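Figure S4 source data
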Amino acid sequence: MKARVKEMLRQNELFRVLPESIITEIVDDSTIVSFPKNHFVIHERDRDNDLFFLITGLAKNTVITDEGNEFSVRFYHPGELAGLINTLAEESSHFSIQTVENCEFLRISKSLFNRLIHEQTLFAEQLTHDISRRLQHMYQALAAETSEHKQGFETYPYRKRVGEMMEYTITAVPPEVAVIEVTSIMLNEKVSSVLVMEHDKLLGIITERDLIKLIPAHTTIPTLRACDIMTENVITVEDDAFFYEAMLLMMKHQVKHLPVVSAGKVEGIITLRKLSDFRGQSVLSTVKTIDQADTIEKLAEHHTNITAFLDRMMKEGAAAHEICTVITELNDRVLRRIIKLAEQAMVEEGLGTPPTDYCWITMGSEGRKEQTLSTDQDNGIIYPDIDDDAHLAEVDAYFAALAEKIVAGLEQCGFPRCKGDVMATNKKWRKSLAEWKYMVEAWFNHMQGEEIRMFTIFLDFRPIYGQMALAHELRQYFMIRKKNFPFMYNLLAEDDASCGVPLGMFGRIVYDKKIKDGIDIKGGALVHFVNAMRLLAIFENIDAVSTLERLAELTDKGTFTKEEEDEVRDSFNTLLYFRIRENMRQLQSGISLSNELHVVSLPKDEQIRLKKALNTAKWLQQKLIRQFQVRGIRI
């Protein structure tokens, strides 16, 4: 055992800087201890803690927030050191170390560790870097968690991490094992999947579905090996991913088993059945009903399930952007199903299949994956260039008819037509690739008034269905051509500055004249976050279209500090949450959906949070004014 522990210490980034004699001393002067599952190795109230180097098993670092909620910050795997911050703290820390399964540790005394710090210079330097990284990770996680709790809801289960839900025992077979033996293993161990692995490397997965597919060719089964029938390029999920992220992966890829990995190594597996235990079944069954709907009427019926699921996510504490991400995925599925049904209807009416490739794009909030209940349609069609004018007219006529069926289907499913007519039924938003490029050039050369607004809607486009390469080429064309029009940034910043944030000089919320006791939360507040992230992302050559994805990449590029990113993210989520909640209230009360937020009816603490978010919006607006030198605007 000692030889194995020595080798594990040598592989650890912190201990590898020590000479061999010191590593031997650490092992000789320390003890190997065992703890059962769910045991607190270190509790947050403990002081003068030793360190614990994990040999076998899995442990987690947990923290109790001020509200009394426990959540996991990170997981510890064999070869990692646990309790570092607890040991170095002069007083009791906020963090606990708890076993997730039966564990063995090398217990290193605090006195020995302190001596290494004072005597080994390289060790001390590496320790400083290690502590910095750990603290940054922990407090980022804590800030994200407490920001969600500010909304006053318990965050179970949507903020629960995959590592807390996964099955830690995996069933694995080598690639050369016979399929008959694989079947026997699955029956004996009562599992619905096995992983195909070689030297700890994941090669594939075999599920019950794969075995059922073999039944028609049963005579060949005795000759088959695991590698012959396994699914390669396995969809996996990180152990520190959240519940909703695993749920999204299953939705996107129509799989029921996700191997859980950490640093590329398989640590466990999460299944559809396990997610069902944590309330994931309802959304996954909704996906199935959407994909199987054979009429628009049935899709419209199923769309009510999406609204109910949104309501449940809110009550169970999911963050606003998480809700939008899940809802957008479900709505994307509804849209794709509508498109397929529309294509089928065109064939049944004698109009035939699409005469050429095409790509259906969504724009605006749908393109940014920020849909709420009051979101209307913003969409378009891109099709390849066609030289013959007569043929071009025929092609466009086909897509005009197809677009009408799709837009009508979306309307029937609860997505209102765009009042500004930004839809594929409008020739302006249904073009060949060359015509789209021409329109981009026209915007560059004549960007005034309403055209600026149309331009900003377009900039958030996202391909949904069809030949995605057409949309990617259009995006690349824009990114290349924008370099010749630097004045664009000034105009877009000026457009945002023309609409003030509803916040007075002394921090008083200024009510909208049309609303009297409140504000337009979309046009007066959220729009400034969207505009700022869009403009700064374009300036930094970032392709992302989601506001928070743009924010994350801008932080990576140094546009924002990590603290500023956290502030912007928290404020954006606050405003988005208020909008979704107000839409739900309007829907349940039978009131027309709108973006009105009646501030006077908000509790005092929510009014304070609203002011904080509006202050952040004002700061973003001022940042654009300064950076892009918008003249004539007071900041």
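Figure S5 source data
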Amino acid sequence: MLNSSEYSLGVTAYPEYPTAIYENETHWVYLEGRIYDDGGAERDHDGENEITREKGHDGADSGDKYGLLSLAETVFEHGDNERVEDWVTETDGEFLLVAYEKDSGRLALLNDALGRLPVYYAQDGETFVFSRELRYLVSEFGDSFDQMGIAQCLLLGHSLGERTLLEGVNRMRPASLLVFDPDHGLTTETTVQTFAFDENEHADRSAERNASELVSLFERACRQRSSSKGTDVISLSGGLDSRSVLAGYQIEEQSPVAATMESSEYVPQSDVEIARVIAAEFDVEWQTYQVSHPVGRDLETLIKTKNGQVGLLTSFILGFFRQIREEYGSSLSYITGDGGDMVLPDLTPARSLTMDELVDQVIQQYGIFPVEDVAEITGLSESAIRESIRSRFEEYPETDPNALYVHFRIYERAVNFLFEGEDRNRFFFWSTTPFYSLPFFTYAMHCPSEQKVQYNLYRTFLTDLSPEAARIRHPNYRAPVASSRHAMVAMIDDLLSRYPRVMESIKPVIKSVNDLDTEASLQPDTIECIRSQVNQCGAVSDVFSSEDVHQFLDSHADYGRVSIYRIFALTSFIDDISSNQPVLNTYRNNTFV
């Protein structure tokens, strides 16, 4: 990698992980991730540490087909943010760029428009450190925890904005340019592009036309993401998102295989059966992989890789990943339907809300703990926690409350929460989704909410994309998406969404009727492990009120598994980076339910 008098940069990755290095006499550029185009642009560096040295500046003859060396020159020498913005908004990919100017010693970081790869950074005087893994910064900046970041993560499952779980450590926002000047010890941060969701550019177009445009963009995204160096493995469930992906790949005449998790504990059998029907309809090679309850070492793996930012309840999926990696190798591309539930449905609140009501909506809809309990456990006031959410809304570019809420769901729920979950996959193999293809995402988010409500736009999109896929039953509503029954149930669902408390009370009935109730009872090991972490790790009791955590554990039956495992993820992360012998290590072979 890069070793100079100013910096030391290194990479820890399996051989197939996509990285590339480009270099000329004046600049050095590192590319992590993939940039897509119709020619399969990722193929130039997929799975290779390709080092290209050239004497010119534009990289035209060196394999630098994206003009990254020229882009680096623009960043450092010209400061032309308009050109940088144009490049970012026109480049479909999931990537991080690191550029080094040899003469001045300046360093620059630039990520994609959606911030698909989580990146963290911090500066202390003349020291600038960044990493794709949060725990790396602990060794440089210590384990001082951000109390509000902890509180937000306990409440919502993720921190907000740039905030992380560590004091002084920031999360790189989407489409950000960071430039560090070692001579002056200064870091300048520029947001080169931000999506604003208060303008629907395609509102004057019919739903049919918008769906047709989306189908074309989706097919292109599937074609671009097809890999030539490994198997495309589509994560297939019975839902609409994954079947859309399979249909898009089939239309583009790619040759994917499909993989489905099977588990009596975590996956409804009806979901597996619908996946079987979908695979048969498209005549695709399909396998199921049995998964069961995780053991302590699975939880430990998730803590050490995602550092408390991904819920431990998802640990069971690691067994699925290991099986398909063993089957196809780490060169596979894991293709998911992630994002389908964000870009095609209506994300606006059911009614217009004031700013205070928006804060209440976020807490009510996404709160894992009651906010008053979070305040007691963390020692922060409830008003301070609410204000931290409100202040994020006030930083958004929109003014319309509906658009503010959409911005929250994309830039907080997706970027800070869901993208962390996707990044968990990349510790095993490359993971991507066509739903976050930049052209598709941009077009879809400019379609009016009136067309998206009650699955209307999605219904038209999927029917245009694949009538066969649209005719297969949607497990959530027990009816094909193209049917009148589905439209009726979607309307009822939309009405209930206007009254979250009513929806929450009848959710168990809905899950039971639709064979979606797969929750298992909590085992004593989980509670015992958390108690030990609180009692044995001083850092845990510094961050949380020991008395309140113990009271919570005493009444855990009143909260449910999601709440318990949320605090478990945080206590495990704190213990892991603060203790020589973390408590979870002694539970490596225990089964967690």
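The two ends are 42 Å apart (CA to CA). The CA atoms of residues 129 and 140 lie 8 Å apart.
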